[in-house]
Amino acid sequence: MERNRLLPLVHMWAAFITFLPAVGLGVWQMLMRSSLPAPVDDPNVYYASVTAHGTIMAYVFPTLFAMGFGYAISNSARNGALAGKKIAWTGFFLLITGLIMAVIPIISGTSSVLYTFYPTLIGSPWYYLGVVMILLGSWFWIAVMVLNFRGWKRDNPGQTVPLSLFAITACALLWGWTTLGVTTEILFQILPVAFGWRHSIDAGLARTLFSLTLHAIVYFWLIPTYIAYYTLMPQAAGGRLYSDTMGRVAFILFLVFSMPVGLHHLFMDPEHGSGFKFVQSMLTFMVVLPTLLTVYTITASLEIAGRLRGGKGLLGWIKKLPWDEPMVLAVALSLLLLGPGGFGGIVNMSFAMNAMVHNTAWVTAHFHLIFGGAVVIVYFAIGYELWPRLTGRPLMSKKLACRQLWLWFWGILIVTVPWHIAGLMGQPRRYAIFDYSDPSVAKTAPLVNVSVVGGVILLISVILFFVVLIRTNLAQPAASMPPVRYSLAINPPRAAAPLLNGLGFWNAILFALLLISYGYPLGQFYFMHDTSSPGYSLTRELNK
Amino acid sequence: MNEEISQPIASRESRKPGFGNTWGLAVVCVLSAFVVIAFGVGFLILPATHQQRDQMSMHDNIQHALGHHVHDGMSTKNPAATSIPTYVVWDEATIHEALSGDPQRGEFIAMNCTACHGETGVAKQKWIPTLAGVNRIVLYKQLADFRSETRLSAPMSAIAQALTPQQAADVASYFASLTGGVETQAIHAPASGRTLRGTDPTLRLIYAGDPKRGLAGCATCHGPGAYRMGVPGLSGQNADYIEQQLHNFAQGSRRNDMNMPMRTVAGMLNAAEMHGLAQDFSAGQSLVK
What we know:
The structure holds two protein chains of two kinds. Chain A is mostly helical.
């Protein structure tokens, strides 16, 4: 059993405990959007619910999960001698305080600004302060990750940092860089208006700052999943990782290219010229590379495992893979979801095609398929992998866990495929109310109703997930429980290659790319005048 | 099986020299080339193709790519607007002025208003608006519009023209501070029936609007639930006044709404709907239950 198991265990429990109600809200929101009767069909409640769902799913659940996973990885890498535990706990309590601070104004209905804030909308200042505190708490985690990364290198001079530690540190650094955008937006654009110190907001500048966060945050969610692809799945499948180098290159590409691409969320915005939109569209294509590398490497790793287990022929190895292992099943299902999700993303980031899907339900369907599907399904499997190590009890049971993963897979497809189609038919996003008596809108009704069914399946699946965790927690402790073992590559790296063993150079490259791609788009606001608009307040009159 | 993989297999990869300075230089070169190509296409080649299509100069097209919107002097060809809805612009200076009122000085000025608008700002005649509790920025704008005669009313224009902007802000802040009139902080408890599934047609218009006509719900700007700058709360306002204003907007005899939301919306309402909305907003309580 692991030492220091409380830290990751508490973070993971907290993550999943926030996840459960957020899924429930999501199901009700889909019901509200459908043509079926919904309880409390009040648009203001819908927007409050979307705000709670988004805030938890974007800022709290994956952050707590990555933190817990990061502590588990660093702790294993350092043989149970995790440094900075006090800093870690401080961050955790700050984050939870922030969560409570953000949730109370959302429930009171004064902060229905959705998790992306949409200035000039103005909610309660306590909501924004809560979000800042959540981010502040997570920065303590970044410090602990860097501390342990450096500690490992100091303890093991000249050796190659384990891939899992390398990747989670890249993930933490990416989070540090990217949250600067949203924090700056809240502190310098939104809060002064929410407190009544200023009265107007530069929506263009605020949205540009948020775009620094808006895309990279997705890769921050994705990296823990990719870490499981590279370092947990090959072991669980009984094989080896095809290439350790490929993994390092993929995580470096994520760190470097996730941020100078955010303008592709603003293709339809008037505050930027077509030149920078095009440049960032090009840079966005670079983000496809690490995913393509990963799909190749992970498929190769699965094949290695299948062949080692006696699989023959072109595809015979697939049958030989241990499909009753939750981690192997989850990674395979995740790859299947990543395919259509990724191609949908290429549509969104293409300068011209974006115009067709912008502000339609296609976009929401896309990020639910990627995050809810490809990413979260592996979070479950990481939970199944870590729970026995953290609690010292055997998983109860693998069979139930696999059924839960299958339910989640089908649930996500049933939710998001009709949702994409509704978007292509022109259904707008961010709407609480659809007029299904209008024939042109009525065409989308069956699609949304199918999505509701998918949502219910997802809710059942996540309840099953809790059943497995709780049953595991209540089970008899196992006689012995080996610590987490991270997969080795067929060719473990021997010589420490400086560029693939440290992150300093890549942070410098990221900074240079940010200057090139965002310097002018952000700098122009200091030379523009009269670009602010008055805040638009919810539930209360500003300047009463 | 496991023995087979327990020993690392020697391969070309493990014999390769590590990524060193040469690789770092290569990364910088490749990335620089990529960035140069992206900028070349975004700021030269694409503007050049636009040049052929739009008959605009190359200089203007590059400016356009940077986000500077150049109109080739076309804007000067547009005739001057014949009808200005309002001269008020919501910039920081105007908002600051509207908020700088002193209610004590305003109370003195308000003695001129009591004959029509009531001693406590609650008008007895139902076709005259109640001012108690109305947001000070709203009152400031209406006085500014009366002063510039973009909102027409002979008595109100005369009164507003006699006030300086500072005095207008003072009297606005006095009426905003009074209670018992318009309610803008109404508690907004969640309730069913505020979507298109609702059965009460007026409540449905207030909260959900009518998408077939492109009508947004009144509550989107007037509350309860959301307030836009310069837009009055209506809960508890006099019914006849609301109904009259809807007719005025619909007919275009009142047109001081910035970006003409009210002329657009009121123009799509029928008389029975205007009456129902005026009655419901006036009663106030039924909106929030």
